[in-house]
Amino acid sequence: MMQMVHSRFNALLSACVLSLIATVAWSQPLTWLGTLGGDRSEAYGVSNNGVVVGWAIHSSGYPHAFRWTASEGMQDLGTLGGPDSEARGVSADGAVVVGWSSTGPDHRAFRRAAGVMRNLGTLGGGWSYAYAVSADGRVVVGEAQNAQGLYRAFRWQGVMQDLGTLGGPESKAYAVSANGAVVVGVSKNADEYWRAFRWTASEGMRDLGTLGGGWSIAKAVSADGAVVVGIAANEQGWSRAFRWTASEGMQDLGALGNVSEAHGVSADGSVVVGVDYTAGLRRAFRWTVDGGMEDLTTTYEDLLTDGSELWYAFAISPNGRYIVGTGYNATTNRIEAFLLDTGTGRSPCTLDGDVNGDGIVDDADLLIVLFNFGNRCP
How many CA atoms lie within 13 A of 76 on its CB side? Predict the structure, then answer.
């Protein structure tokens, strides 16, 4: 009986090893995403399962919104009737994409689900832009023109809501929490300085301050809305990446040189990504609570061909595993969108059997169990 059990175990183990080898051979930790026939692409959003959205130059010469998956590659999402479009945000499962598209004379925010691109309208003016979507795909945020021609931060959930300002004429919303309740962005205050804001229905728009300079911009927010990241001027006038919490206020994340910008944050608020400008060079960075700021081109240089560089990190998946942005691909001699699979991170949801915490129960989890079968704690 025991021999039969061992035989079945060995057979299962062999099958899993072969499956894992095939998976590893197929997947790549760094993927250049290509274009839609043109010479450039940029990635601005990524889901927990590695679905990437952004824009790429079409063969027509205009940028078109794209949705990329490992199985299907780069898909042209089309437009609302005009020549160009851009995708800026994606839901946690990769099913809903938001951005903007020309309709002819104007640009309009869109929400694309089940293959259909929907025009979200405006606040009474001619233009609107969507920048982010909640985890479940129901709430969209961005900026839209009102009847007076001023841009206002909006929150859309079936209808478009004007979120107001910090006392000045205009505002823009760049990110939204997982449940759609917290919105962050930038607004002019009564003195017409741009300031980062955090908005909730109960408290309205709150000024998050600066790092000692005159302005700030909030670019991303954690799943629960407690951590906000972005860009702020310091006392010396340098633009610096910041991380804000209610208890600690605005924290300067430093820089690899003098200037840095934070563009994305993981669901738990512990990992921040962005771009650093040092001596005329652009460097995508990752910042962690424990490790500080690191240059992704240096950290992952073994994945890059000679001359290739990771320039901008625009977003990180909620589980912290995937980073997307734009860099220089020396192989194609193009500025190109990239997907970096760091192989780390924890899914915000919990699945029984998800041993490695990547949000999927698959062969990799089974192998971890099998290779450790029979082990005991000392």
Answer: 17
Domain boundaries, the chain: 1-29+361-378, 31-360
CB 303 within 8 A of CB 296: no
pLDDT at 68: 98
Evaluate whether 145 touches 127 at the Cβ level (below 8 Å).
Answer: yes
* Torsion angles phi and psi, residue 17, rounded to 5: -60, -45
Q: How far apart are CA 204 and CA 372, in angstroms?
A: 52
From first CA to last CA, the distance across the chain in angstroms is 29
- Which homologous superfamily is 31-360 in? TolB, C-terminal domain (2.120.10.30)
Interatomic CA distance for residues 164 and 154, integer angstroms: 8
Pairing of strands 281-288, 271-278: antiparallel
Coil, strand or helix at 23? helix
Residue with the bigger pLDDT between 373 and 197: it is 197
78-82 average pLDDT score: 97
- Which string of DSSP letters, residue by residue, matches 176-211? E-TTS--EEEEEEETT--EEEEEEETTTEEEE---B
